[in-house]
Amino acid sequence: MGLVTCDIAVSLDGFVAGPHQSAELPMGEGVDGRLHSWMVEQREENASELEAITAAGAFIMGRNMFGPIRGAWEGSWKGWWGPNPPYHGPVFVLTHHAREPLAMDGGTTFTFVTDGIDAALDRARAAAGTGAVSICGGAQTINQYLVVDAIDELRVHLAPVILGAGERLFDGVGPKSFEQAGARQTGLVTHLNYRARR
Amino acid sequence: MGLVTCDIAVSLDGFVAGPHQSAELPMGEGVDGRLHSWMVEQREENASELEAITAAGAFIMGRNMFGPIRGAWEGSWKGWWGPNPPYHGPVFVLTHHAREPLAMDGGTTFTFVTDGIDAALDRARAAAGTGAVSICGGAQTINQYLVVDAIDELRVHLAPVILGAGERLFDGVGPKSFEQAGARQTGLVTHLNYRARR
C-alpha cells in the first residue's frame, strides 16, 4: 500500500488561505499569490517539490478546495483548473451533496464522496494501487486526516509571510509530534518535510 | 546601531508556550520541554544557534517571561534562571509595575520598564551600544515589536510538534512579509531565519 502524503502551502502564522474565499478570490482575501508565488515565479528552483505534489496515484480534496459553491450543486462547476487539471488521475472530493463523477481531459476524474473521510481514503487507496494518496487540502480536510493519524508524510511549504486571518492549518489537531524528514529553502519558500510517528 | 534580533522556539501550530503558565509549569500545560528539547539534548548540534541567542548586547522580555507573578510585585522573585542568568548583560523587563533594578551574578541586570515598548527599546539600544538588542519573548512582547516593524532578524526555531493551545506567535501582527535568510534542520528542530523588508 502506498503512503498517504500531504502537500500544503502555508503562511508563517499557519494559514493556507485567507478569509472569504469566493469565485473571484479563490484563495480568500489578502493572499494575492503570496503563498504560492514560488510555484509560479520559480518553477525550476522548486521543480522536485512541484513534481512530488502531483506524483500520487490518487487525490483527496475538500469540497471548498474544489470550488466556491456551498450547499447543493448548481450549474456545471468543474473545478478551478480548466479542462485539463494537473492531477491526471482519480480525485475524490469530500462533500455532503451527491453528484455524478466528472471525467476531465488528461486522465483526471472527480468523484464525489458523501460518506466521509474514511470512505474517501479507502476509495483513493484502491484507486491508487501501489501509488501514494495525496491529501490536497484545504485546511479542514487536512486537519481531519491529521486527527485520525492518516497522513504518513506531511510536506509543508512555508511562505515568508504573515496573513493575519484565514483558514488555519493544524486547528483542533494537537497535541501531536512528528519526525523531521528534511528542510530546503529556495528563494521564496522553505520546504519542510515531516513523517508521522508510527 | 546594532540590529534588533529575536529568537523564539515555536510549535508547528505557532505556539511558544502552552496555556496556564505558572510557577510549577513555566512553559504552560502540555509543553514538557517539547519546544526546547533541542537546546537541552542536542547542544552541540545546535551550538551556533544557541550562541546567537545570548550574543546580544542587551535584552528585552515581557513580564510574563520573567516570572509567574501577575499584578503588583510580591516576594523576591528574580527570574527563572537562578543566581547567574545566561544573559550576562542588561535585560529590560516590560511591566506595568515599577520595581528597583536587580543585579545578578555574571553581569546580568534586570531593569523594569513601565513606560512601554518604545522606551524599553531606546534604553536597550543605548545599553547595547554597537551590539544587538534581542527581543526574548514571550509571544505578546514579540508580537508588539513585530507590529511596529522593530525586529530586523527573526529567528524561528521550529519544533516538529503540534501543541493545540497556548500563547500564539504572530497573533494580531499581519499582514506582513519577510525576506528569507536561511534554514537549517538538526535532529529536533528547524532553524528558520527571516529579515525584515526595509
Write a concise keyword list for the protein shown above:
homodimer; 198 residues; alpha/beta; Dihydrofolate Reductase, subunit A; 9-stranded mixed β-sheet; two-stranded antiparallel sheet; 5 helices; 12 strands; 32% strand; globular
Structure report:
The structure is a homodimer of 198-residue chains. Chain A has one domain: Dihydrofolate Reductase, subunit A (3-Layer(aba) Sandwich), CATH 3.40.430. Chain A has 198 residues and is α/β, with parallel strands linked by helices. Chain A is built from 5 helices and 12 strands. In chain A, helix 3 links the parallel strand 3 and strand 4 (90-94). Helices cover 19% and strands 32% of the residues of chain A. The model of chain A has no long low-confidence stretch (mean pLDDT 96). The interface between A and B is large, with 37 and 37 residues. Strand 9 of chain A pairs antiparallel with strand 11 (176-186) of chain B.
